[in-house]
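So, can you check this record?

>
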Amino acid sequence: MSGLAARRHRKRKLKSEINVVPYIDVMLVLLIIFMVTAPLLTLGIDVDLPNSNAKSIETKNDPVVVQVDKDGNYFLTVKAGKKEGVSRQTLLTRVRALVAENEKGKLQVYVGGDGNVKYQIIMDAIDTLKDAGVEKVGLMSQPEKGAAQ
């Protein structure tokens, strides 16, 4: 019986190995949980941005620029020349002559205004240009400092 006792003793000998199978199962379950929940954690808002087909301005001729200062005075710049102060009637006459010189619809006119000028004064300048025969008037703007270009 001593042989039988030795066999029992061998069978009950402790193993010094770690059983990692349960740890692998837990790890796979956690991996699946994180894979499912990760897309739900993205922070952001869905925004439908407007589409634009706007193209950059390509000009063969220098545009006519009408500027309005904070006091409501008009300034006219023709063909990248010197900016000169004009009255509303002079503006009307000069732009009417420029419209007559150019092909119909080819004259490019831009209006720029001081940030502190009343909107009505800008609208008066646009109305004057329309009365002179300008078909399309563009508004000039300047991006804010630090804004993405």
In short: Residues 114 and 132 are 23 Å apart (CA to CA). Residues 21-37 form the longest helix (17 residues). Helices lie at 2-11, 21-37, 88-101, 119-131. The chain has a mean pLDDT of 78.
